[in-house]
Specification:
This protein is mostly helical. It has a domain at 40-198 and 246-311: Orthogonal Bundle (Peroxidase, domain 1). Helices cover 43% and strands 2% of the residues. It is built from 14 helices and two strands; from the N terminus they run ααααααααβααβαααα. It has a two-stranded antiparallel ribbon with strand order 1-2. α2 runs antiparallel to α4. The termini are far apart. Residues 1-19 form the signal peptide. Keywords: Calcium, Disulfide bond, Glycoprotein, Heme, Hydrogen peroxide, Iron, Metal-binding, Oxidoreductase, Peroxidase, Pyrrolidone carboxylic acid, Secreted, Signal. It catalyses: 2 a phenolic donor + H2O2 = 2 a phenolic radical donor + 2 H2O. Ca(2+) 1 binds at residues 70, 73, 75, 77, 79, 91.
């Protein structure tokens, strides 16, 4: 017979585990989370983002990408915003992020405005989610009801950030990285469609233009005319940070042209063109072709995939904190214990 203390301990452990599992539940995120505590948060976010775009035409795409890079590293918890400190090694120094992700000043402006209206209420993680939705919609894309209630992490993970989906990844690697965070092929193709606006640096393009393999100089999946244009903008040995439009047709508009570009072999990155041109791209290619001819289908799918991504391992309940400053943890938070349940099936990472 079990000792009463052992039985009590077992019951306590079960209770704690169930409570934590419940705390992780996506159901804890709600569109009405701030209705009574900060009802105008969405309006504050949208107006600040819109104002930022008047002096920075790239900002809508950059802010959308920032949310991807947050969610794919230990979940949507605002960890990408943390800067170096005695306890934090910033994810911003990871190879996929360094001198690449941007928009932190706009997030800081939003946080200041939100704190003035509703101090200590809205998380930086939720601000990133709201900012992505506002950016997509303001650029001509769909609108959706953002689920809210995330809290901010007190840790960062540069190791995971170094494993973000890469512009150089082939289809198999992309599928693996998306599956690792619980996203499927539809999510992969759909979220890649965010490359319908924004810019990409030459450093991510030149491997396709010069000495591609031992037998060919240029990636054969690149349209030859498009390749010539890219070579003019990204000469061999040139400035690696020079920018190229991700969508050469409507670079600042959120639309379905990205998929038409893939059909025309004008995907800027390897990771783009692989969705259609990889010999094993049966599933992804059919999705690409569907979206190329049906923008409404793409928009509907994008809304669902952004919600799916926004549900990656959020901190809720009493986990994490509400940061006062998005770039640093609150004073004393490093001494607190924050428990996260992570199963083998839990997920973590996305790209520009």
């Amino acid at each position: 017979m079990s000792h009463p203390c052992s039985l009590l301990l077992a019951l306590n452990l079960i209770t704690i585990t169930l409570a934590l599992l419940s705390q992780r539940s996506q159901a804890q995120l709600s569109p009405s989370f701030y209705n009574s505590t900060c009802s105008n948060v969405s309006a504050i976010v949208r107006s600040t983002v819109q104002q930022a775009q008047t002096s920075d035409v790239r900002i809508y795409a950059s802010l959308t990408r920032l949310f991807f890079h947050d969610c794919f590293v230990q979940g949507c918890d605002g960890s990408v915003l943390l800067v170096n400190s005695s306890t934090i090694q910033t994810e911003q120094d990871a190879v996929p992020n360094k001198n690449s992700i941007r928009g932190f000043n706009v997030v800081a402006d939003i946080k200041t405005a939100v704190e003035n209206a509703c101090p200590g209420v809205v998380s930086c993680a939720d601000i990133l989610a709201l900012t992505a939705e506002a950016s997509v919609n303001l650029a001509g894309g769909p609108s959706w009801t953002v689920l809210l209630g995330r809290r901010d992490s007190t840790t960062a993970n540069i190791t995971a950030a170094n494993n973000l989906p890469s512009p150089f990844d082939n289809l198999t690697t992309l599928e693996q990285k998306f599956a690792a965070v619980g996203l499927n092929d539809t999510d992969l193709v759909t979220l890649s469609g965010a490359h319908t606006f924004g810019r990409g640096q030459c450093q991510f393009v030149t491997p396709r233009l010069y000495n591609f393999s031992s037998t060919v100089n240029t990636d054969p999946t690149l349209n030859s005319t498009y390749a010539t244009t890219l070579e003019q903008n990204c000469p061999q040995g040139g400035n690696a940070s020079v920018l190229n439009n991700l969508d050469p047709i409507t670079p600042n508009t959120f639309d379905s042209n990205y998929y038409i570009n893939l059909q025309n072999h004008q995907g800027l990155f390897t990771s783009d063109q692989e969705l259609l041109s990889d010999p094993n791209a049966t599933t992804t290619a059919s999705i690409v072709n569907n979206f190329a001819g049906n923008q409404s289908a793409f928009f509907d799918s994008f809304v669902q995939s952004m919600i799916n991504m926004g549900n990656i391992s959020p901190l809720t309940g009493s986990s994490g904190e509400i940061r006062t400053n998005c770039s640093v943890v609150n004073s004393g938070s490093g001494l607190e214990l924050h428990i996260r349940i992570q199963h083998d099936s839990d997920k973590g990472s996305a790209a520009e």
